[in-house]
Structures are given as C-alpha cells and as structure tokens.
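Quick illustration, no need to memorize.
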Amino acid sequence: MIRADGLTKFYGSRCVIKDLSFSIEDREIVGFLGLNGAGKTTALRMLAGLLQPSSGRLQLDGQDVLADPKSIGWRIGFLPERPPVYEEMTVSDYLVFAAELRGYPKEKSARRVSEVIERTELAEYQDEPILHLSHGFRQRVGIAQAIVHEPDLVILDEPINGLDPKQIIEMRGLIRSLGDEHIILISSHILPEISQTCDRLLVLSRGELVAQGTESELRGQFGGGSRLRVTLVGTPEDIAPVLERCPLLASFETVARAGDATEIRVELKEQRPEALSRFVIEAGLGLRRIEPEKSELETMFIQLTRG
C-alpha cells in the first residue's frame, strides 16, 4: 500500500500542491485526474521520489519514501509524460540498461527483459533502434522500462497522450493487465478514458485533492449519474411496455436502432443503475450495454475541477 499524508510543494511563494493525502491498496489501479496545470506531474514526481515536497509524508508499505529515495527507488517504476529513452539504443539493449540502473540482478535481467518485451508486445521490434519506432510503440517501451525491475508501484504520467483510438484501446488493456501485479497510478485529463481503465479516481484541482472515489460514487456525490444510455435486445415496441412498469425510471426515450437491439436514454429516480440492470434482465430483456451519458460525466468533471 502507498500512503500520502499532507504532501505540500512550494515553488518560491507559490503553492502548487497543497495538503495532498490519499492511500492506494495493492493491485489497485487509480486514476489521477485533473485539468492541465492542476499539479498532476508535480505530485507524481514527488510520489516517484524524484522531487522533495516542502512538507508531508509518503510511505510505501510503511517504508518512508522521502527519507532515503535511493534505497527505495527500485520499488517504484515511473513513466514521465515524455518516455525517457535513448533513441540510438535497441529496445532490448535499452531495457537491459534500465534494469541495471534500478539495481536489478544481472543474472536475471535477460530473462526479465524477455518477459517484459512479450508483455508489452514489443517482440517484433526488440532489435530495432528506438528512433525508428512510432509514438505508440515508444510509449510501450516507456512502460516496459517502468516495470522491468519488478516494482511494487508503477506511476504512469499521461500514458495515452497522443495515441490513436486503436492504440488507446490496446494501452487500456495493457494497463489493466499490469494491475494484477502492481499498484498502478495513472494521471490524465481525459475523463472517459481514465474511467474505463481505473478502479478509483483522485481528482486534483489547483493543487488540491477535491474528490476521490469510484466513478459511481463521484456521480452520486455530485448529483450525476441519473441519466444513462441502455442498449437492449428487441424492438422499441417490445421494450416500452416493460420499461413502463419499471418503478426506478423517471422517464425514457428511444435513441436509435442497431440490428436486433434498441438504444434507450433513461433517467433514474435515484442512483441505482445496478437495480435497473437486474430489473430488465429479470423481465426477460437482453442487456447489451449500460453506461452514463458521456456529457454528464464531462459536466461532473468540470464541476469538480473548476468549482
């Protein structure tokens, strides 16, 4: 578990991080969310042991990260927004070098590098100079160097920045798989993507933590989540009589037809999407998809980060 207590950072008289406190459990994926300039990168550099806070404490499994960052650095993997790669090196040589920098045993590094290359799907490019790789594959190399020494905590600063839609989906899957072995902390300013990847969100605004919790908890806390998009198997004529009997709904309307399914916009009387799922399934309707309206998620994010 990693625990931050009262982390604060001043640059001169300007406070960029104020009294930041939270904890993350083992094998949990947490999103660090905030607008550009909210202080995310400064906070992540402190959590990685690369920047000393002005005050506060940071512990990893009870060990003080800030007291002696060098002695605990091997337990932390960090991907900055710009991957720290040497472009003239091949992928495999660079990862061996990165493992040795973190003190990983030399007799185990070759096998570990092979495992990481396979995990990040870089096998086809392992003998290529990093200079020749696309942005998406450089991001994969950046993640590979962050996990090659088997750290407990992996910190990823804007890992999906600049990726195309296909690469974003692949990166999402990769990050989710890493959560089986590491504590994962990801920063982003893109709410829909980070909400699909993370178990829990920490929302930062102007250097302060303004909210934390699961996406559902935040929507409930800030009045969101009452409007959903639901895709059900059947025609509108079949679906409407069933939804009319649902006591959970304030209103509903058909949005679109797609093959044998119908997309419905619904408004709940209370924040209980799981109860709606159970109702339609027990009523014999096939449930293809249920999700909050994206515009409502974005509204909640703006409310949190801009007051």
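The first strand starts at residue 2 and ends at 11.
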